[in-house]
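TOKENISED FOLD:
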Amino acid sequence: MHENFFHKIKVYYEDTDSGGVVYYANYLKFLERARTEALFSIGFSNKKIEQLYGLLIIVKSCNIDYKKSAYLENELTIRSFVKSITKTSFFMTQIITKGNETIVEAKTHLVFINKDGKPVKIPEKIYSKFRPYFCDSIKH
């Protein structure tokens, strides 16, 4: 069984529209923050990956299913896990919940690229740290 990364956030006024509902594009920010914290939890950061390996992790695509709204001062949990992986990229599923209720589900394709924008193999050190968070559908 794979593990999950969990990240908690609180909805602030700046995240909402005039009615106190989270503006749809802000969910992208919440998802990015959770992915960044996931990297930190395994001892890496985007800056460290760039410094050590000369690589960047970019979002190639993101598909979001908005199920329910979040509101001002709601406390949300973002669960993230790696659904599958290739030599140069991985597919992450992220689920945002409010209490026990799923409000957003996102599937994101992330790619490792060099400074010329070309996809490159995921460094073994990063791959091995992420390994416990992969589902069984590995293609490495």
User: Anything to note?
Assistant: The chain has one domain: 5-138.
